[in-house]
Each structure stands twice: as structure tokens, then as C-alpha cells.
Design goal:
The structure holds two protein chains of two kinds. Chain A is an alpha+beta fold. Chain A folds into two domains: 24-39 and 116-194, Gyrase A, domain 2 (2-Layer Sandwich); 41-113, Heterotetrameric sarcosine oxidase (Alpha-Beta Plaits, 2-Layer Sandwich). Chain A has helices spanning 2-11, 53-60, 97-102, 127-132, 178-192, and strands spanning 27-30, 33-37, 42-47, 71-74, 77-83, 86-91, 109-112, 117-123, 149-154, 157-165, 168-174. Chain B is mainly beta. In chain B, the strands form two sheets. Chain B has a four-stranded antiparallel β-sheet, with no helix packed on it. Chain B has a two-stranded antiparallel sheet with strand order 1-2. In chain B, β5 (67-73) and β6 form a beta hairpin. Classes of the chains: A alpha+beta, B mainly beta. The interface between A and B is medium-sized, with 13 and 14 residues. Chain B: GO terms for molecular function: sarcosine oxidase activity.
């Protein structure tokens, strides 16, 4: 009876515009690795020709990397090289990179994708083995050093992978894929320990 | 798993990140309206499909997302070389005897 009453109460809750990130707060600890959802962050997808890079770097406050598979981090903001004219900017300090780019007159395209993506942290000695369960890239420290970033795949889903420490990765995926990605990583975390 | 060298990422990546995009070096007619039906059919449908070395477009779709060209042997499935889109057909293939 009490259960039914609670249900009615929940249904009567007023509509809200509160942001509810996908899978917020989910975490899984396995021996050797911890998989957890990261708090929301500001993200943009940036496309720009080489001639605009200096102006954009100045506006964003960090030098956009031009070498494949690299990233640049400064004051909580990370720029990931995704393609020859494509970057993903992740800001965890609460500043909006979209507003910074809006001031730039040089040719570029900046699209806000903060709500499209979610970040998952995979950390621990078995982090590389966990990610490798679905990602075919070589994640040894020689091939994928700290700071390396790449768009790649995890199982059937496309992800953006960033190595933030020797034993820690940030996995960025579309929020609609987040359940699949998180579950795959959770299953892998259990296996990776063995 | 095959490793394919992406000329934009400048390294070998696993084949799962790539997608084939058909034969390379097919020039679109400059005046397509004036094409005869036979010429259009040749341009649009007819592909070489050779047994041996083939020039193909590939896309690093789950990586840098760029299209590039690759030379592949359809018998051994070996990638002979890859080069950026827009570059001319390589005159000499590495390791070619002739």
C-alpha cells in the first residue's frame, strides 16, 4: 500500500528543467580498476583551418595540438586532437569554451556538445586492460602515452579516449550509448582483475 | 586483425576503425548533363574489380574521420601502401618487382 502511495507521489512531482546527466553517480569498483561516471563538463566540437589556430588558441587559453593523437591541458580545460582540422574541447572548470570561441572572428565552427557526451573515468592498475577489452588500439605507454587522445571504438560504440595518467583513462561517449559503454567497461573491469 | 596505416594519423591503426569506400581515382565528369548514357553507366556503375592490386578509397571513420587512398592486393588482402586523398596514383609501388 505504502509503495503504491509513493508511486503516485512521484508521478505528481512538478515538471523540472533540472539537468540529469545520463547514469549520473554510477560507479563500479573491481580489484585493480574503478569505473565511474564523471561529473558534467562543458564540451565543444571545434573545426578550423590552420590559419585560424593562433586566434582560437589565444581565445581558449591553450595551444591547440596539431600532432595526431595528442592533447593539451591547461587550467581544467583540455583540447583533444581528433582530426587534421578537428578538436574536442572539454572544460571541467565550469567555464564555457563556446563563449570564448564566439569572440573569435577567424573562420571556425564551434558546436556545443556538452549534453551530447558523458565522461567515464577508468582508473587503476588494470585500466588499460579494461579499456582494451573493447578497444583494439595499442594502449601500452609507448604507443599511447599520458596525454594521448584519440577517437576510436569500444565494442560497437564510438568513443573518444584520453589518457590522463599512466593508469587512468577518460572515456567520452554519446549519452545514448553510455549505458552500453558503462556496462561493457564494468564487465571488463571484473575480467581485467583476473 | 589487419593494421592499416592512416596517412593523417601517421600510424598504423586496427582495421575496426576503418571503412572501405569503393574504388579510388574515379573522376566525376565535368559536364554530367552532356554525358551519354553509356559513358554515365561506365562512370557510375562499372568498376575494375581486379584480381590483384586495387586502388581504393578508405575512411578512418572511427578515428580522424578522413578519407584517404589505399593500394591493396585483393588476393593476399595485404595493404601495399596508403596515401592522402587528392594525391596522384603512386607511379611505383614499394616492393613491386616490375
Amino acid at each position: 500500500m505504502a509503495k503504491a502511495a509513493a508511486k503516485t507521489k512521484a508521478a505528481a512531482a512538478p515538471a523540472s528543467v533540472e539537468r540529469r546527466p545520463a547514469l549520473a553517480g554510477r560507479a563500479l569498483s573491481a580489484p585493480g580498476v574503478k569505473v565511474e561516471m564523471l561529473p558534467p563538463a562543458e564540451r565543444i566540437s571545434l573545426r578550423a583551418p590552420e590559419a585560424s589556430l593562433a586566434a582560437l588558441s589565444k581565445a581558449l587559453g591553450l595551444t591547440l595540438p596539431t600532432k595526431p593523437k595528442t592533447s593539451a591541458t591547461k587550467d581544467g580545460r583540455t583540447a583533444l586532437w581528433l582530426g587534421p582540422d578537428e578538436w574536442m574541447i572539454i572544460d571541467e572548470a565550469g567555464n564555457d569554451p563556446l563563449a570564448d570561441c564566439a569572440k573569435v572572428t577567424a573562420l571556425h565552427s564551434a558546436v556545443g556538445i556538452s549534453h551530447r557526451n558523458v565522461g567515464i573515468s577508468v582508473a587503476g592498475p588494470a585500466a588499460a586492460a579494461t579499456v582494451n577489452s573493447g578497444c583494439p588500439q595499442d594502449l601500452s605507454l609507448e604507443a599511447f602515452p599520458v596525454g594521448a587522445a584519440s577517437r576510436t571504438i569500444l565494442g560497437k560504440s564510438e568513443i573518444v579516449l584520453l589518457r590522463i595518467a599512466a593508469d587512468a583513462f577518460r572515456v567520452e561517449c554519446w549519452r545514448s550509448f553510455s549505458d552500453y559503454v558503462f556496462t561493457l567497461l564494468s564487465e571488463a573491469a571484473g575480467d581485467a582483475a583476473n | 586483425m589487419l593494421l592499416i596505416r592512416c596517412p593523417y594519423c601517421e600510424e598504423e591503426r586496427p582495421e575496426l576503425e576503418f571503412r572501405n569506400a569503393g574504388e579510388a581515382h574515379i573522376a566525376r565528369p565535368t559536364n554530367i548533363a552532356a554525358e551519354s548514357d553509356d559513358d554515365f553507366e561506365k562512370f557510375f556503375f562499372i568498376r575494375a574489380n581486379p584480381k590483384g592490386v586495387i586502388y581504393e578509397r578508405w575512411r578512418h571513420i572511427h578515428g580522424c574521420a578522413r578519407f584517404f587512398n589505399a593500394v591493396r592486393d585483393t588476393v593476399t588482402d595485404k595493404f601495399v601502401m596508403t596515401y592522402k586523398a587528392g594525391e596522384p596514383k603512386p607511379a611505383k609501388l614499394p616492393g613491386a618487382s616490375k
